[in-house]
């Protein structure tokens, strides 16, 4: 029995020593591995309009400012919700805040605040017509983008382009270095959206509330680029 125990203990020690050696030994040197990146780009018409409306109020006390902002926002919401339609015109409130106003002596001499409403969707005519009817808020920003449906439609095309370019580049490099083929080691795929040219900017001054009354605000969308990047490494063989 004692001999058996000693043999088992010796075997455990040898196994532990082997595991320790394996952990401390340096990883095998990589040979004939190439890192590369490929990109697929698809240009598509922007189909999403995001229109921000806002108002600012000032008064001697915070309660008055809050009441004025609430009244303006409630009236705008009532008008916007009459025309809301899921996906075509979605309505949501934006930032709503109150801030103290300081005098030259560093003391609070009044309050100011700002409230925002956001109209977003694919029906440009419905959105701009609704904005034109809102009397209590003014347009502060206009931006365009891609709806989830439009992005998903072209993202697959851009991804296919990137993958095919990656494979062609890998085969070309393998051949150039004198190898007949390659195998994929690791790969990463990511996508993003870019808008060529200047991005939409906040208007320098908000339009006077009611200045677009009963008339649609003129807007025109541009194009966006959906870009998919495929990066990784291949083993030439």
Walk me through the structure.
By secondary structure, the protein is of the alpha+beta class. The protein has a domain at 48-143 and 200-220: 2-Layer Sandwich (Alpha-Beta Plaits). The protein is built from four helices and seven strands. The strands form two sheets. It has a four-stranded antiparallel sheet with strand order 3-4-2-5. It has a three-stranded antiparallel sheet with strand order 1-7-6. A hairpin with a 5-residue loop joins strand 3 (90-102) and strand 4. It is elongated and about 80 Å long. It starts with a helix and ends with a strand. InterPro entries: 26kDa_periplasmic_antigen (IPR052022), SIMPL/DUF541 (IPR007497). This is SIMPL domain-containing protein. Keywords: Signal. Pfam families: SIMPL.
Main attributes of the structure:
237 residues; alpha+beta; Alpha-Beta Plaits; four-stranded antiparallel β-sheet; three-stranded antiparallel β-sheet; 7 strands; 35% helix
Structural class: alpha+beta
Going across the biggest sheet, name each strand in turn. 3-4-2-5
CATH fold group of the domain at 48-143 and 200-220: Alpha-Beta Plaits
Low-pLDDT parts are 1-17, 197-213
Kindly report how far apart the N and C termini lie. 54 Å
What is the class of the domain at 48-143 and 200-220 in the CATH system? Alpha Beta
Helix content: 25-40%
* Secondary-structure element order, N to C: HEEHEEHEHEE
Let me know the average pLDDT.
Answer: 83
| Biggest beta-sheet profile | 4 strands, antiparallel
State the assembly state of the protein chains. Answer: single chain
Number of DSSP strand runs: 7
Shape: elongated
If classified by CATH, what would the architecture of the domain at 48-143 and 200-220 be? 2-Layer Sandwich
The count of helical stretches stands at: 4
Task: Note the beta-strand portion.
Answer: 35-45%
Gyration radius, in Å: 31 Å
InterPro entries: 26kDa_periplasmic_antigen, SIMPL/DUF541
Signal peptide: 1-22
Keywords: Signal
Protein name: SIMPL domain-containing protein
């Amino acid at each position: 029995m004692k001999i058996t125990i000693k043999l088992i203990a010796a075997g455990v020690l040898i196994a532990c020593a082997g595991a320790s050696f394996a952990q401390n030994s340096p990883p095998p040197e990589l040979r004939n591995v190439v890192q590369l990146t490929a990109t697929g780009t698809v240009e598509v018409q922007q189909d999403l309009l995001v229109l921000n409306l806002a108002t600012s109020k000032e008064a001697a006390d915070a309660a008055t400012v809050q009441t004025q902002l609430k009244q303006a926002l409630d009236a705008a919401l009532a008008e916007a919700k009459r025309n809301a339609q899921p996906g075509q015109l979605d309505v949501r409130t934006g930032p709503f805040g109150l801030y103290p106003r300081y005098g030259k002596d560093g003391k609070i001499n009044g309050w100011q605040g700002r409230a925002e409403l956001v109209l977003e969707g694919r029906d440009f005519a419905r959105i701009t017509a609704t904005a034109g009817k809102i009397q209590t808020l003014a347009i502060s920003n206009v931006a365009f983008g891609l709806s989830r449906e439009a992005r998903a439609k072209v993202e697959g095309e851009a991804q296919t382009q990137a993958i095919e370019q990656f494979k062609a580049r890998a085969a070309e490099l393998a051949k150039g270095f004198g190898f007949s083929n390659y195998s994929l080691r690791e790969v990463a795929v990511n996508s993003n959206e870019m808008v060529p040219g200047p991005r939409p900017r906040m208007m320098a001054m908000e339009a006077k509330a009611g200045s677009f009354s009963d008339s649609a605000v003129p807007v025109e969308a541009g194009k966006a680029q959906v870009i998919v990047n495929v990066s990784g490494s291949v083993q030439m063989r």
